[in-house]
Amino acid sequence: MKIATASEMREIDHKAINEFGIPEIVLMENAGVEVVKTIETMIGSLANKKICVFVGKGNNGGDGLVASRHLSNQGAKVKVFLLGGINELQGAAKINYDILCKMGIDIVEVANERDWDKMKIASAFADCLVDSLLGLGYKGELSSSMKKTIGIINEAHKPVVAVDIPSGVNADTGQIATSAVKASYTMTFGLPKPGLLLYPGASFAGEILVSDIGIPNCLLTDVNIRQNLITVSDVRAKMIKRLPDAHKGNCGKVLVLAGSKGLTGAAVLTSTAALRSGAGLVTLAVAETLHDILETKLTEVMTVPLPDLGNGSIGKEALESILEIAKKCDVLAIGPGLGTHEETKTLVQEIILQSDIPLIIDADAITAIASCGDILTKASALPVITPHPGEMSRLIGLSPDEVNQDRIYVARQAAELFGSIVVLKGARSIVAFPDGEVYINISGNAGMATGGTGDVLTGIISAMVAQGLDSHTAAIIGVYIHGLAGDIAAKSGMIGLLAGDIINSIPSALHGAVEE
């Protein structure tokens, strides 16, 4: 499913109106009707229900005005609070305002303290509140009157339906400047918006419903819309199904280069996750001084000792051995727990330059190229890098907070800059391709905020590549399966969930994604 930015949605509306000849008032009518359906689903019969509708001066407010008419027609006791002057209403919104006036629906143009008191009292006794204040156009700071209104809506603790997007949420980034409406449901039109899916905006959206208001489908599937939502149907269509005569030799071979003193667990998690994700054979290459430890920890994973620096770290002397082993494998996962010794960093850089197989680059391997990220453009195959915001900050020179301010933009720019597939990890991971295409993943949960889950993701993506998926598809499926496995594991509780629990749930996640 495509995801539209605010500007893209405005362009879609413009084309629907001007190229296809659908009158603006028809789209507004359809939107208002859909809002009413959502309210009825939420609170049942509308007869004699008290409903407050908060209306702004734009088309979002017009949607709310249409909803007010239909609510009244179904017997609801509707009170409309208009933020902004009546003279600011234009076009279809003004037409619908005039209709309400002729119907005798109670409209309060909020202008003084007495009006604010009316708003507080009405909200306190309402059965439902409708937020049609700002819509997709909001950016920056809220006006004082808008802050006050949002505060009254939230403090009423009533069911809230937000029209298109909760007021105060940036439609493109999900960021919130000061405050935002806390919705129970968000009825959005045509396509979902990034701000509904990305945090913190996702925390304010409640249940998201995407409604068809009559926009031609060709506009909603335009290839120039470069944001996409990863859905189970997408994953199911792209997954490689195992043939009945499969054997370990044709199910993919993964080489994992990971682990150092004190960080052998990362190597275990990555290599085990690769096996659990369907790879036929997984080999873990590890410093010789740590080899016996890993052999004890792992049963199904093969291990290979590498010449090391005597302290559990590996350096340039291991390069030839790694490249030789890699010739027999389909993909190389590099970085989890690898350590940050200067010689290790040099080794990572040489592997990127000399390896002939696809690379999945994570953790300490990302740190190793922090000062020379352009080296990724010289890799023989398109690399996949999987940074969390802290690792991304080291790559591009922004703080982790700045990275999270606009995750889609940052991931997209990094993918283009480094000529790589970028998986920006976190709540709602982003997969970005060098050509600008972006995918948002919504599987997963807060229980996955624990050490080692990123190592598991590296193993999953590696196994997908090994089994024959291209790196683009492997990254998309990998983040979805990772999150789904986390959701399955969390059924026993999110707090205390371990990375190993996610690994054990991978087969169930794969089964659920493949089976109808």
What can you see in these coordinates?
The structure is a single chain. Helices cover 44% and strands 15% of the residues. With 516 residues, it is an alpha/beta fold. The chain starts with a strand and ends with a helix. The protein has 21 helices and 18 strands. The longest helix is centred in the N-terminal third of the chain and has 20 residues, at 24-43. The protein has 2 domains: 2-225, YjeF N-terminal domain (Rossmann fold, 3-Layer(aba) Sandwich), CATH 3.40.50.10260; 245-514, Ribokinase (UDP-N-acetylmuramoyl-L-alanine:D-glutamate ligase), CATH 3.40.1190.20.
Question: How many β-strand runs?
Answer: 18
CATH H-level name of the largest domain... which superfamily? Ribokinase
Rg value: 27 Å
Distance between the termini: 19 Å
Mean pLDDT: 96
Strand content: 5-15%
Indicate the percent of residues in helices: 40-55%
CATH overall fold name of the largest domain: UDP-N-acetylmuramoyl-L-alanine:D-glutamate ligase
Identify the CATH architecture of the largest domain. 3-Layer(aba) Sandwich
Helix-strand category: alpha/beta
CATH class descriptor name of the largest domain: Alpha Beta
